[in-house]
Design a protein that fits this description.
Distance between the termini: 31 Å
Shape: globular
Largest sheet: 5 strands, antiparallel
Oligomer: single chain
Number of strands: 7
């Protein structure tokens, strides 16, 4: 928050990513939403007039496409078939599975008029740490909707969000089905209860195949607990994520990390 990213040099963790500037960012970027190695949706994120950032809350415009959108066929084919198998090995993580829910943001770098099959797209960002389901954005609090919650998501958008959750559950089950076992949900009574309720969360299975949890952070110094929260304290898209695990036969309890309980949290 103070902009001192390089203070102390490499010894203190300072780093700088040397990345080319792509002027066509003003036309927007393509976000590829992936579950494991499967593309499940494409979002064209166009910055507000005069801007270059399409981050949520900046007035940017989102257009949604299915994974087989023909106008992006060349990029999709090259990414999924040629480039994706090289990503994890390039990061030194060849033995690890591709993240469960992650995105790649592409910026068009070719001159205007380039045929689609010859276009060059630059990866601006990989994200697998704070990826949201955009169809659930109606559930997060802001100044104009301080009481936003799960029920503010339209029925149509909730169908799409649940579809993502169910796909995630299926893929998570495959990742976990490698010799692990589970007998039931974990006792989390030693952790502080932060959320007001779990409205929208499906009942936990009586005999789950695996024990799972969705860890959240509530920023006590920020309005609403952070810019991505519903009025009950959960992240706006937590329910579809967790419900996808539950419908696949796993338990998925919603827990909050409270730094004063660091050791207890990791014991649980």
């Amino acid at each position: 928050g103070v902009g001192k990213y390089l203070e102390g040099g490499r010894a203190a963790g300072g780093q700088l990513v040397d990345q080319r500037f792509c002027p066509r960012i003003v036309e927007g970027e393509l976000r590829y939403n992936c579950v494991g190695s499967a593309l499940v949706g494409i979002i064209h994120k166009k910055p507000a007039d005069g801007g270059i950032s399409a981050v949520g809350g900046t007035g940017s415009f989102y257009t949604y496409y299915g994974p087989e959108e023909v106008k992006f066929k060349s990029l999709t084919t090259n990414f999924l078939e040629r480039d994706l198998p090289k990503v994890m090995p390039a990061l030194g993580l060849a033995a690890e599975p591709i993240p469960l829910w992650w995105t790649t943001d592409f910026i068009l770098a070719s001159p205007v008029g380039t045929p689609s099959e010859d276009e060059k797209w630059i990866v601006g960002e990989f994200n697998c740490s704070c990826v949201g389901i955009s169809k659930c954005l109606a559930a997060y609090c802001q100044d104009t909707s301080p009481n936003a919650c799960y029920t503010d998501i339209s029925a149509e958008d909730l169908v799409e969000a649940d579809k993502y959750g169910h796909i995630m559950g299926e893929v998570a089950l495959k990742i976990l089905s490698t010799g692990f076992s589970s007998s039931g949900p974990v006792d989390i009574s030693s952790l502080s209860r932060v959320a007001k309720d779990d409205f929208g969360l499906y009942p936990q299975p009586g005999k789950p195949l695996f024990k799972g949890a969705l860890a959240e952070i509530y920023v006590r110094s920020q309005p609403f607990g952070g810019s991505d929260k519903s009025c009950n304290g959960h992240r706006y898209d937590s329910m579809p994520f967790a419900n996808g695990m539950i419908t696949s036969g796993m338990s998925c309890q919603l827990i909050h990390y409270v730094h004063e309980e660091h050791d207890t949290f990791f014991d649980v």
